[in-house]
């Protein structure tokens, strides 16, 4: 029994020694990404309210609220900037005006597809064995470890529709000589004698506003591949080696966006599956060392990420790689 076990170990060792170890430098192209963003809300962040009496008005730069103790006027108001106040005859007295505004934006979400036109670097380490040998054809298997970098991005200028409501109030005090105080800003009125009307004069303007956007997804892929191999001897030192199989890769990916002043980023990881087919022309430098060059086609699952309603979907449905490597037999 010991003799049988020894013979089995010897046969396995002979099989491993008959194989090859190698390394490959890869340059890959064909990655794409789809990006999308949420639609602009189309609602005021601060509601300016209606022009009906006894209404509350909230603005991007202050407020004028209804007060139950007064009729047609209110002391419940405040603003954020002195530039909102227009004096009368150089004085902050009765007849001076205070302007408030609220702005809303609206528009469909931005959807962009980006093609990675650059060359992405990667490498591969493999073990290959061809235990079934014929006169010109040999068959076996390959097991490899792979690493791949990816970076896909897009940027540009887009625009959304704007609507700005501007409400103007004319200040009045109980007495003609009661003027606005030497106010700090932001100013929140607490004096019941300082009044604004509760119905403003309203103007609405519409337009568009441009903003710069950018989307980017960056990923590192560490994986394994395995499949059958077929070697065809073309002449004494030159051979064609072809193979195909399945792959599994662990991905760590970062997706980031900017939309004007808004920005965000997320980092996610996960496993994706794929398939490959490759072909190399190999030249035997010595009995043990061979160099080769070739190409590889790969297809892998997509990988999606989302942050703040912004989405990315990285795709590698049809990737092409150039390969350059060396192998040594044992």
Cα separation of the termini: 29 Å
Total beta-strand segments: 20
State the helicity in percent bands: under 10%
What is the CATH homology-level superfamily of the largest domain? outer membrane protein from Thermus thermophilus HB27
- Provide a count of the helices: 1
Gyration radius (Cα, Å) is 36 Å
In which order are the strands of the major sheet placed? 1-11-12-16-17-18-19-20
Q: Mind describing the biggest β-sheet?
A: 8 strands, antiparallel, barrel
Q: So what's the CATH class of the largest domain?
A: Mainly Beta
The class by helix and strand makeup works out as: mainly beta
Beta-strand content bin: over 45%
CATH topology of the largest domain: Porin
The tally of domains stands at: 2
Shape estimate: rod-shaped
Sequence of secondary-structure elements = HEEEEEEEEEEEEEEEEEEEE
CATH architecture heading of the largest domain: Beta Barrel
Low-pLDDT residue spans: 1-17
State the main characteristics.
mainly beta, Porin, 2 domains, four-stranded antiparallel β-sheet, 20 strands, disordered N terminus
Structure description:
It is a single chain. The protein is mainly beta and 330 residues long. It folds into two domains: 17-39 and 110-158 and 213-329, Porin, CATH 2.40.160.70; 40-107 and 160-210, no CATH class. It is built from one helix and 20 strands. The chain has one helix at residues 2-17, and strands at residues 20-29, 32-36, 40-41, 57-59, 62-64, 73-74, 77-79, 85-86, 97-107, 111-115, 120-133, 137-170, 172-173, 187-188, 194-197, 201-233, 238-259, 262-284, 289-307, 310-329. The strands form three sheets. An eight-stranded antiparallel β-barrel has the order 1-11-12-16-17-18-19-20. Strands 4-5-7-14 form a four-stranded antiparallel beta sheet, with no helix packed on it. The two termini are 29 Å apart. Residues 1-17 have low confidence and may be disordered.
